[in-house]
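Hey L., structure's done. Input below.
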Amino acid sequence: MPRPLLPMLVLAWLLLAPGDVSAAWNPEGIDLERPRLLFRAGDLAGIQARVEVEPWRSVALEMLARAEASSGVALDDHSIASERIKSRAARTLAFLYAIDRGAVVEERPDPFGAPLRRFVAGSPEQQQALGDRIRDLLVSLYPRSRLAVPPPLGGWDRDISTSEELLNWASAYDALLGAGYDFGASRATIEERLASLAAELYENYVHPETANGHALDHQNNHRSKSGASLVLAAIALAEYEAPPGSDPNGVRDPALWLEYGLDQVDLVIRHVTVAGDGAYAEGPFYWRFSSQNLIPFARAWDRLVGGRSWRVGDLEIPSLWRHPLFSRLQRWMLDMTLPDGSLAPFDDGNPGLSYYFGAVPPGLPDAAAFAWRAGRSPAPWNTDGNVDLGPDTIVLGDASVVPAEPEGSPTAFYVEGGNAVFRSDWSEQAVAALVLGENGTAALFGRDRAGLGVVPQSHEHLEPGAFLLHAFGERLALDPGYISFPQRAAVNQPQHHNMILVDGRGPVDFLASSFFFWRNDLAARPPTDGMATLSDTLDTGFLDAVSVTARYDGTRVAAPTLAQPLVRRRFLFPDHRYLVVADSVETRPGEARTFTWLVHGNGGGSSPGSFLPLPTGGRWTRGGARLDGAIAFDAGAPDFSSSTEVHEEPDRSVLTHSALRASGSGERLRSATILYPTRSGEAEPVAESLPLPGAAALRLVDPEGDRRLVVAHRAGEGSSLVLPSAATGLRDAETDGSLAVFDARADGTLRIAYAERATRIAYGGAFILESVSRGRIGISLQEDRAEIVAENADPALLVRGLDFTPRTADHACSLTTTTEGPIVGLGRERRVVLRADAGNSAPAADPGVAPVTEPGQRIGLDGSASCDADGDPLEARWELVSAPPGSAWSLAGADGFRPELLTDVVGPYRLRLVVTDPSGAESLPADLVVYSGRQCRNGVDDDLDGLFDHPEDPGCAMPEWPIENPRCSNGLDDDGDGLVDHGADPQCLGPHSLREDLVTCGLGFELALVLPPLLWLQRSRHRRKV
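Output:
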């Protein structure tokens, strides 16, 4: 090598070596005027005015009171708790300094009223003293990543503490600089300490060995919180350049923190932990916890870049603040609130906490509802946390928003998220129940951008088909809570939830499946049982419903198999007043199991309530309400017992309660359960088992509520299920369905009749509803109104026995009066309201048939079959309410009947259509689910048999497939093609194919052609003509 080149190469190496030079972050088109994080300079006047009025004045006073706790903490006390107090105080006080409202005065505008405390500008001396106080806190900040520090100052999971401290310190520093505070020589010290804190946290994540590999275990809220704080630190220190030679590892560059943080937040939120409909997989508690970092990050970053996407390497990172998934997540949090406004404590979640509804993005469709809920919770307009969101709430405040209850039905279904919420209304005395049925991302088995599993994940409880119930201001059927991460094993196991155990067990531990087993093949299905699916949702004015399907028995397997029992739970919410649960459990022939139904009521044990065992179940009484639980089986009486279990109270105390256990053994069992809440001062209801051959049946009488109720559940359908008056106390009732609910008043007049897999319902000796095809049919009768559901294939429905002549038909296509009764013409919408009054009929939405598509295809949708009984012209409005994690879908023409959807990721895309007539009357929302990717490869349980995708589910389109073809599991090569059994030989009935056809999903081609007419002939035997 020529010698003159050597000095030049050495100089080039020195200049390019990442450890030696760190450049400031100053991208083109970005306004770096300070302050950059808490607010922008143009916001100042509005913020100053806002702290003068409620609720933001109280928010400011409360956050100031929390900040004053720092005055008793020594500056050199760097314990986790003390540093949290100091850093939080610095952010709050810096905000007040920056808005020039650093003093509080007490006035008494009414001589006889309470004094009024308000914020004012402090004197120059007061302002200087406040700034100096914040400066002293910043100068003394702890500059180490606690992930790399041993206890007690750090620990394997203390990156979350560092992320919170970093966010608080960076915000305080930026706010003071933006307000013109002169740090003098302290500025360089503060910047170096802040840079050290951010750089080490960044290094611990990109080079996990620098912190004993702990960051590899943090794939959830730890990672998103840390990423968010690194971005904010990078913005605050955008001009920072590490002194030459001070950065040998190349980690002190704010541009690196920013890009890494953006990437990690996007990965965790849009891909790994949030289901397509907005449900957060770690549960409401951990989204509340995450949002303490994510809300300040998302709004500051969005404001800085004007809402545009940002390129990080080959990735285009959208603004989270404006992303529809983030908006859906906020609505999910609203739906996950209990009647008192606190968050439902499922998965790892402490009870009694309030969310930050005052700090959600402004301008969302539910803004009025968010403001309403913010003021109606155990902690109204709550901002408390390790990061106090008081400044964010004040900056985002909008006095033009008038708080109002959420519009539309209070019941909500998050199918992809695995959450079903039944709610009578939005009052504090409402009856509300939450049902769980999670899988995939929602069960914390999320995947990265390449489709590989992200492990480990640790905040999921093992509770497929579990539920909780609140009523009349009381917590009645318990989800036990969280306590804390080290103590969670006392409340997170299957036996701690209201679910069905198989031989005393539930699913295998999800954390172990994630941590130890899935990592062996991250492209495969999660190696665990208990993945549950919500389906068959129903939301009407008189009855709501959802089904949960899962397989589990606590056996460690590579993937669930047919050897594991199938558990199907059907939840009904009749009259929006009580729960009915119709369960079916089944095993393979010759493999009887013991099944145990659990109901954890909030009474007995050390709880302040009582528990009373009853012949058909038990009664729990707590405060102003009680819960009666009754259970019956179709084969013998349940074996009842009770146990003492643990739960967490909102004040963090741990108490015990009595759990009811109802057990039975067999290969197949059907059950009926009634969970009936009443006020404790009212007359007690009486529940009894109802002797009914081949059925699980219960009756309940509530004298105070003027209610007589009968529930029957059986295995088959077709033959008459007769409920005689002498046995039920109602009038004679009959159906040919498998599940029936009859709800009448004390005088026998019918309130609700509902049946599933039925063609008819009769009451009082006369048919009320009749159809040709089987399905879910029901009716609610009032003096001049009838609400009907007919989820079957019939184009019309005959209604008998009405006490009025209907003149309008909401959500129907037509209404025809005959001597037999009105005939209601039906389209895709199967929920109809008949009214006696003349007037406008609301239209019915029909989103059409879901087309088959593959990622990357643009498909047309067609809602033109939407109809109106009056024949009025209609307008359409489409909305995409769920998409697979990570999707960058697009929906063009959403304000017309024929929009176009572009899918880009395998999985379900859920669209919602609402049509409006010229009078402004709207249809009920109608959902259409488009699956991108072929059956058996789309990540869902297509046939609801508790199995997902080929080869785990060889007959993915028919749950009956393995039963109809037992030869596929006999250890023989039945068809002579050299392959034996599923999944090696998924088409064992014929050698024409060596692999499963992904359209017929396990059916041989010939059988696929023959099966539809065979099924039609079978059904025709049971048809009755109208």
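Residues 961-1020 form one domain. The first helix runs from residue 5 to 16.

-- N.
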